[in-house]
Structure formats: structure tokens, C-alpha cells
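C-alpha cells incoming
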């Protein structure tokens, strides 16, 4: 996708033509006063994007491409690098290339917020390819082709940046991870454009959508509206409650039966019978057949050849719309979510 030209931001600190870079630690001169430093947080709950139908308007918003992968926080410390999932689990060993790239960044301490993705041949993030690189749901493989897309900087050389405006954090991030790089840690570049036009262009290039962020907002954990996501195609997480057998479909799976949350309960929202390949269907069948239960967890209506399972598997599903009776339309299976990813199950009113 062709991006509008963007003026390079100048460093916040130092001379105008000298990009900001961290320097190796030195012993402090006792004659100099101690500068106040912020303790490095052990973990930060991520800022989450609120789903909207249309991009927000106005100069206070900036835009980025929406990436489809696993949300991660990369912690760079004197003792080494930690890569934490959204739930706070240590997945450093799962992403050795990202770990090595983080060690090479010119900084002593930092927390970088971003997304681990695997890119297809057209440079688009593909959640299914990422799952394959990790060995599928519950797999233990180390990804050999995932890259980290950095989009925020929360801690930098002893200073907690969460109370700083997004523009301030972005200035520092762009000096740490320069735009246009092709290393295993890359910058999610801001795009100066009309939100509606950018969304149309993203959809035309088969991207998942865009993210809008308030340029003057601090970093606040949770889904508070400082970040907004606008999708080209709806994509959400649903619980698998069973499947329908088939004598002709891959691995004998005709359709997966899906449920969403409604309050503290689950409610049936239809099925999905496309999006599988031989490998994903076989892996699904193997996992589901270990979880068979006698009584369905939700009322799915009368189903022929249905097998019901314990509702513990979470699937990422693309769909176009909802039917009048609350069922998914034109649904397609994208992959299983990791339990450690702590994905939000779709909630219906």
C-alpha cells in the first residue's frame, strides 16, 4: 500500500541534527547530583483498542495499520530481555529472533509495546502463519520467522513514559526503531491521511483494518477509547462448543459450532465450515476428540451428526455480518487462539 509522505520527526533531546541514541552506562560522578529515575515496572497491562465502525475525525487523531498477531511487551533490562504476552506469561524462548534484535537496540532499559506477526508474500500480517510458526495452539515451537512490530514506548532509560503524550513517546520510539527498517523489530509507522480514505485503501489491499490513536493521550491500560480499531472485515474470538461430522470434509469436520458470551453464560451463534486446510483440520480434530462431553454446553438446536466438546478452545473467526436471529454470516476460520493470549470472547447484548 502506498503511504502518504511523512515528515520525519526530530529528536526530542540533543541537537536538531543528531538523532537520540542511548549511551552505555558509566559510573556516576560523585560531584554530580543523583537524577531521579523511575523504577522499571515488572509488567504493564496493555492499552486496548475500542472497536468502532468508522474512523474518528479531527487533528487530534493519528493512524496506523492494524496488525494481526500476538500482542507482546518487550522488556529490555541490564540482566537481559523478557518478552511477555498480554496475559503476562514469559514467551522469550518462543521468539529467539525478536529477543536477539531487542538485545541489539541502543538502549539500557526499555519496555516496547507491539505485536508479533508473520508476514505473507505481500507483506501482510497473517495470524494463521504465525500460529503455524509456533506449532499451533498449545504448541511449543520457537518461531523462526516472526517479527515484532513496535508501536509504543512505555519505559526508556530509567524513565516511565506512560504519563507522556503519545507524540512524545512516538518521538523516542522512532529514534530507537527507525522507520523503514527490515530487521526483526520494525516500526509501525504513523500515516498522515484522511481516516476514511486510509481505511478504504487498507481494505482494498486486503489488510485487516486501521488503528486511530489520540496524539495527546497518555498510555492508559484497558479499553478506554484512547485507541480505536476499525476493521475491513469483522474478526472476533468465539468459543468452540462442538463440531458436525462429515464424510467428505477435511478430517471429518463439516462445521465448527461456535458460541459467544452473554453475561456470565454462553450462547450459540452458528457455525463455520471454511478456512481449514488439511493440517489445521487434523490438528483441530485431534484436540477436540480429547474433549468430548455428553451434554452440549449451549443449546445449539437440533443438529445431525453433532459432537459436543468442553468449551475451552477459542477460535478466531472472520465474518461479514450477523443474521437477524443472531448467527454469523459468511464466517471463515482463521486459527485457534492461545490460552496464554487471553483473547476476549465476543459478547452479545
Amino acid at each position: 500500500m502506498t503511504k502518504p509522505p511523512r515528515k520525519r520527526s526530530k529528536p526530542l533531546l540533543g541537537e536538531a541534527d543528531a538523532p537520540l541514541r542511548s549511551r552505555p552506562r558509566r559510573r556516576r560522578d560523585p560531584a554530580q547530583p543523583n537524577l531521579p529515575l523511575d523504577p522499571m515496572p515488572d509488567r504493564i497491562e496493555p492499552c486496548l483498542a475500542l472497536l468502532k465502525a468508522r474512523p474518528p475525525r479531527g487533528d487530534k487523531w493519528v493512524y496506523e495499520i492494524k496488525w494481526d498477531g500476538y500482542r507482546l511487551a518487550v522488556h529490555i533490562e541490564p540482566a537481559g530481555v523478557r518478552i511477555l504476552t498480554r496475559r503476562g506469561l514469559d514467551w522469550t524462548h518462543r521468539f529467539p529472533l525478536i529477543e536477539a534484535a531487542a538485545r541489539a537496540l541502543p538502549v539500557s532499559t526499555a519496555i516496547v509495546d507491539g505485536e508479533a506477526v508473520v508476514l505473507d508474500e505481500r507483506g501482510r500480517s497473517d495470524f494463521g502463519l504465525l500460529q503455524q510458526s509456533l506449532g499451533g495452539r498449545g504448541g511449543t515451537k520457537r518461531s523462526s520467522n516472526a517479527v515484532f512490530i513496535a508501536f509504543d514506548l512505555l519505559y526508556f532509560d530509567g524513565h516511565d513514559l506512560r504519563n507522556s503524550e503519545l507524540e512524545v513517546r512516538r518521538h523516542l520510539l522512532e529514534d530507537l526503531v527507525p522507520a523503514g527498517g527490515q530487521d526483526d523489530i520494525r516500526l509501525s509507522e504513523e500515516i498522515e491521511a484522511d481516516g476514511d480514505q486510509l481505511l478504504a485503501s487498507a481494505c482494498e489491499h486486503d489488510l485487516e483494518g486501521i488503528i486511530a490513536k489520540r496524539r495527546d493521550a497518555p498510555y492508559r491500560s484497558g479499553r478506554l477509547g484512547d485507541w480505536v480499531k476499525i476493521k475491513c472485515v469483522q474478526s472476533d474470538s468465539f468459543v468452540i462448543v462442538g463440531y458436525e461430522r462429515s464424510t467428505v470434509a477435511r478430517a471429518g469436520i463439516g462445521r465448527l459450532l461456535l458460541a459467544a458470551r452473554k453475561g456470565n453464560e454462553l450462547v450459540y451463534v452458528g457455525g463455520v465450515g471454511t478456512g481449514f486446510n488439511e493440517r489445521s483440520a487434523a490438528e483441530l480434530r485431534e484436540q477436540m476428540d480429547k474433549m468430548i462431553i455428553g451434554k452440549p454446553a449451549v443449546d445449539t438446536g437440533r443438529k445431525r451428526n453433532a459432537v459436543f466438546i468442553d468449551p475451552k478452545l477459542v477460535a478466531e473467526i472472520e465474518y461479514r455480518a450477523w443474521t437477524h436471529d443472531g448467527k454469523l454470516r459468511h464466517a471463515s476460520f482463521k486459527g485457534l487462539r492461545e490460552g496464554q493470549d487471553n483473547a476476549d470472547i465476543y459478547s452479545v447484548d
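note: The longest strand covers residues 234-245.
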